[in-house]
Amino acid sequence: MKAILESIQKGETDYLASRLSSNPELAKEKTESGIYLIQFAAYCKNQQAIDILKEYLSDLTLHESACIGELDGIKNTLSKNPELINDFSADGFTPLGLASYFGHIELVRLLLTHGAIPNIPSNNSFRVTPLHSACAISNYEIAERLLKNGAEVNAKQQNGVTPLHSAAHHGKKELVKLLLKYGADPNAKMDNGKSPMDLGRESGFPDLFEDLE
User: In this predicted model, what pLDDT tens digit does every residue of 127-159 receive, in sequence order?
Assistant: First the structure.
C-alpha cells in the first residue's frame, strides 16, 4: 500500500494502473487514516489517479463523491440514506466540508438543499467549517452560498483563524468585502494575536481593507 500511496503523491499513475489491473480490489483499500484511495488522490490533486480508480469502483461513498464532484453519486446515496447528509468522513469532514474544500459549487448547492448544516466544524484538530474551506481556496461563489444559508462568518478554526483571516492572507479583496458584508470582524484575533488586517499587510496587501471598513 505504501508504494501505491507514494505513486499517487508523485503523480506516477502507471504503477497504480498496473497494480489495479492485477488486483482490482485494491481500489477499495484505505489509508492508515481510514480514507479510501480515491479521496487520498483528491487530496493529492491527482486527477489521473482519480480517473483510474473510478474505473474499478461501481459505487462511491458520499464522502468520495463529495471529494471528486460526483453529483449523481451524491444524489444516489442521499436518495437511499438521507440521514448521512452530515456524517463525518474517516478523517473528520462532512460532505459539505469536502465539497467546499474541493470547489464543487453544484454539490454545495445540492447538499444545502438536502439539509446539510453549514456550521458543523470538522471532527478533528483543524475544526474547520465549510466556510473556512471555501475561503482557504478563495472560492467566492461557494462562500457566498454558504453565507446565504446561515454560515457563521466569525467561526474560529484551529489557532483561532476565521474565514476573514484566510481571505486576507490570500489578498482576495472581493471575498474580504463579502465577509465584511455578512458581519466578519476585521479585528478578530488569532491565538497569536494577529488580526485579518495584520495578515493582509504581512502577505503584501497593505491596502486590502481600505474603503471596506
Answer: 999 999 999 999 999 999 999 999 999 999 999
Could you give the CA distance from residue 186 to residue 213 in angstroms, rounded to a whole number? 8
Residue with cell string 493529492: 44
Neighbours of 162 (CB within 10 A): 26
Residues forming beta bridges with residue 30, ordered by sequence position:
36
At 210 the pLDDT is 83
The cell for 43 is 487530496
pTM of the model: 0.95
Dump the DSSP string for 122-163: PSSTT---HHHHHHHTT-HHHHHHHHHTT--TT---GGG--H
CB–CB of 196/207 below 8 Å? no
Q: How far apart are CA 43 and CA 40, in angstroms?
A: 5
Q: What is the dihedral of CA 127, 131, 134, 135, to 10 degrees?
A: -90
The ranges assigned to domains in the chain are 1-57
Q: What pairs with residue 36 in β-bridges?
A: 30
Average of per-residue pLDDT across 66-95:
96
Q: CB neighbours of 148 closer than 8 A, spacing ≥ 6?
A: none
Are 190 and 159 in contact by the 8 Å Cβ rule? The answer is: yes
Cβ distance 16 to 7 under 8 Å? yes
Dihedral sign, CA of 61, 137, 132, 75?
negative
